[in-house]
Specification:
Strand content: 15-25%
Bound molecules: adenosine-5'-triphosphate, fe (ii) ion
CATH architecture of the largest domain: 2-Layer Sandwich
Number of strands: 12
CATH class of the largest domain: Alpha Beta
CATH topology of the largest domain: Nucleotidyltransferase, domain 5
Number of domains: 2
Strand order of the largest sheet: 3-2-1-4-5
Shape: globular
Order of helices and strands: HEEEHEHEHEEEHHEEHHEHEHH
Distance between the termini: 37 Å
Length: about 350
């Protein structure tokens, strides 16, 4: 009776995200309608993220989050048509928790397992949400900063950070000022508050390095210099403002060059730093000048979330791609351009 009751109800793909600090279960309908993610963020008491501690957090919370999703979404397991998980890139111990849960569920429910590329998932949830067709992606997160565009059957990386990710830089600066992880949102608030009080502010008064090398970027120098400005006596709000202006302008410059070189006319933002209103605003202004369009997914789909993993899994399953158990081990250094794209 139970399965008959559910046979006319919606069918979904579930996605599991566990690349770093966030464990998240999310789902998407078979027609691509994205739904909520059920997430838990690991916040270290002090210092950066220790992979083993984050992985312990993920395994401790996994069954609770899964049960919450099933009950709040009123889902019966026989409505779940596939389990997608982040196969890489990310922190090995964290990735393995998500992969293990995904394998267990796929075996238990006898449904396909789909290992997905986390970076590509940021692109596909963006395409899903904005309707853009063939964008240049400015992927700005904690661990990654890349400018990406589709060429042939791959998403190619046209430019990227040569050292740390932009979000990582913001988080490290914040931490050095006693602001807990994640620091990016608080830096945005401090920068805005300071600018309201100092509308005539001049970037030359709070100089920072601007590091673009061809199509590549780096953020260690600007992090050190920002800390230096604080020790010279500049207000934290002023330094946050200058830090955002310099770091975001560098990213937007590389994105602009990518649009010019590829001839594409859509810019898509993705990754946690794409929640920031200032980088959105700069991207919009640059695109308006070029006659292009800038867009981004809702904030809940910019940060790491299970729904984006489900969405890429859905697209892959639609073209017949699933992952055999024997090939489902994680790949912490998986590259964006490693994945062959055969879906629309
Ligand atoms: P990835 O694995 O793709 O590198 P991630 O593990 O860094 O992702 P995300 O959730 O994509 O995780 O991004 C988190 C980052 O986004 C953190 O560095 C955080 O400070 C930053 N961030 C979130 N909101 C904002 C904001 N409003 N302004 C600036 N940075 C932000
Ligand atoms: Fe991410």
């Amino acid at each position: 009776m139970y399965s008959i009751t559910h046979s006319n109800m919606r069918q979904v793909i579930v996605g599991i995200e566990s690349t770093a600090h966030t464990l998240s279960f999310g789902l998407v309908d078979m027609d691509g309608e994205p739904h909520n993610s059920y997430s838990s963020l690991f916040r270290p008491d002090e210092g950066g993220i220790h992979p083993r501690e984050a992985a312990d957090h993920h395994s401790d919370i996994a069954s609770k989050l899964l049960r919450r999703m099933l009950s709040e979404e009123n889902l019966h397991p026989n409505q779940i048509k596939g389990i997608a998980f982040s196969q890489g890139p990310g922190l090995g111990p964290c990735l393995r928790v998500g992969a293990t849960v995904a394998r267990a569920l796929a075996a238990n429910w006898n449904i396909p397992l789909i290992g997905v590329n986390h970076c590509v998932a940021h692109i596909e949830i963006g395409r899903n949400q904005t309707g853009c067709e063939d964008p240049v992606l400015l992927y700005v997160s904690g661990g990654n900063t890349q400018v990406i565009a589709r060429a042939g059957d791959r998403y190619q990386v046209l430019g990227e950070t040569l050292d740390i990710g932009i979000g990582n830089m913001l988080d490290k600066f914040a931490r050095s000022q006693g602001i807990p992880f994640p620091g990016g949102p608080k830096i945005e608030i401090l920068a805005n508050e300071w600018l309201v009080k100092n509308p005539e502010a001049d970037l030359e008064d709070i100089p920072l390095p601007y590091s673009v090398q061809g199509m590549d970027l780096n953020f260690s120098g600007i992090l050190n210099a920002a800390q230096q400005r604080i020790s010279e006596g500049h207000e934290i709000g002023a330094v946050c403002w200058s830090l955002q202006e310099h770091a975001f302008a560098a990213c937007v410059e590389v994105a602009e060059r990518a649009l010019a070189h590829t001839g594409k006319n859509e810019l898509l933002l993705g990754g946690g730093v794409a929640c920031n209103e200032r980088i959105r605003d700069m991207s919009t202004k640059m695109c308006i000048q070029r006659g292009d369009i800038a867009s981004w997914p809702e904030k809940r789909f910019c940060i790491d979330n299970g729904t984006m993993i489900a969405e890429l899994g859905r697209r892959m399953l639609n073209v017949g791609i699933s992952t055999d158990m024997s090939l489902s081990s994680v790949d912490p250094s998986l590259r964006t351009d490693h994945t062959i794209v055969t879906w629309e």
